[in-house]
Predict the 3D structure of the following.
Amino acid sequence: MLPTPAATRWALVASGWSAYALYYLGRVNFSVAVPRLEEEAGLSATEIGALAAGFFWVYSLSAVPVGRVADRFGARMLVGLGLVGSGLLNAAFVLGSGDFRWALVIWSANGVFQAMGWTPLAGALGRWVEAGRSARVIASFGSCFVAGTALTFAVGGLIIERGGVDAVFLAAFLVLVPIGVVWWIGVRDRVPEASPADRAAGSVAAAIRLLPPAAALGVAYVALIVWTPTYFVDVHGVSVGRAGLLSSAMPAVSIVVTIAVGRWFLRIPHGPGAVLRGGTVILVTAAALATISGVGGLRSGFAAVAAATALVGASSSVVLGLYPRVGSPGTVSLTSGMFALAFNLGGGAGSPLMGRLVGQDDWDIAFLFLAGSVLVGALWSYGWYAMARARQLREGASGGPA
């Protein structure tokens, strides 16, 4: 296969970043619509919670099979299909929202198409970027999901205010379907045939042993998205509107920090070296989360939460982007799907405890809980690195593969 020109490679990266940011118009719009769904769609709070849970579980469980397909067929087919399918189901949700059973089926099915975004792109990045820059780009690529969340929150609220709750789902349909068609027509992502060595089971297992840091970061990522506005209201006594404005500033900080952290991985090869640096980023993230519990005053609280949120986003980008690549090159999308599953399951598992702590106004303990979870991820990364290096030294001493 002929090498891809540099301009084309970077065009592919930019288009992949933009496409995945737009994916969030078809999922985070539900979160923006929640305050109006009871009033305009006649759904109860319990039913809304069931819709969110249905999407979450289907999305999580779809990540692994989607990754397996992506390793064979690449990002062109799956990303395009995901955009079109998610757009169509957003339109169908408007028609079915009056009947809870249909709404549950439709929004849960949306999870399948939304799962076709991250894992195919995670695998494709290694094919699109030259080896010397790939670690930096992959570690920074997660800024797209931060940007997508910010865009949806900003635009979605305005759309609902002016057009009602149905409008935010129809807007997703109008954007995602044509973008999916354009992606299908314009993107080329040839997947080279993987050799048996590329699909070695042992190297897949090496990546799987790094799943705990993904789950640990999922706990913190989901908690900060859900509870940050409540923190500003409860702890600092600001209005709900101002809390929303303060929280909306977090994504911009996260994008900058994620890209800056990515630069640290510029010349780091995929493997133990990337995991060692990743563990350091996660350790700093744990310290930032712990710091929130000791601050006083709105200005200091905002700075502490912004720093911690940005570092959680950067750490998540590193773990979801680079850690799956310590395994076999031919199964990056599959292992990325496993990491996405662990990340989301961690977020779901930690939510009940975080909610209980918040409900008891134990905010200091809540942030220490998040810091402790992330600390486990850092220590696990260091332990994995130490074992990997010891294994390399043993193989080198015995004359085996280094």
